[in-house]
Design brief:
about 150 residues; mainly alpha; Rossmann fold; 2 strands; about 40% helix
């Protein structure tokens, strides 16, 4: 999947371009990640931090969201914690349902919202404590069939 490809370093790119089994256009897009992802941990003083004790990095959640969904799809996070998945979904044009037993999720997510970086100008809406049927009805009314 192109959305999670990582750039080749120059030496690896030259070697890949010499390999006749590989398609040069795909090499230019980058390589598909292996089963080991080198993503740094979230430091205690990181600007990503919103105060949740087990917060995950935006980079790892973004990779999951990009590789396992597409624009306009619904991402369900039953253990939303700090709301990182919701933030990434807004930035990546996905719908998000966040669930957590801790009511502090709303406060953590608000801190994320203040830090959102937009790659698009698509509007978004936050719906809190509404029945799931309401959310799904709203999403279905926005779907345009070809």
């Amino acid at each position: 999947m192109d959305s999670v490809r990582v750039p080749y370093d120059e030496e690896s790119k030259k070697a890949a371009l010499k390999d006749k089994r590989l398609i040069p256009e795909n090499i230019e897009k980058g390589k598909n990640p292996t089963n080991v992802w080198e993503i740094g941990r979230l430091n205690g003083n990181s600007i990503e931090r919103v105060g949740h004790p087990t917060q995950k990095t935006i980079e790892i959640i973004r990779r999951f969201v990009q590789s396992l969904s597409y624009e306009g799809s619904i991402v369900l996070d039953f253990f939303a914690g700090s709301g990182t998945t919701g933030r990434v979904c807004i930035e990546e044009n996905r719908h998000s349902i966040q669930v957590d037993a801790d009511a502090s999720l709303v406060n953590y997510f608000e801190k994320h919202r203040e830090k959102i970086t937009f790659t698009t100008s698509k509007p978004y809406e936050i719906i809190v404590n509404e029945p799931i049927e309401y959310f799904l009805k709203r999403i279905n009314s926005q779907v345009v069939l070809d």
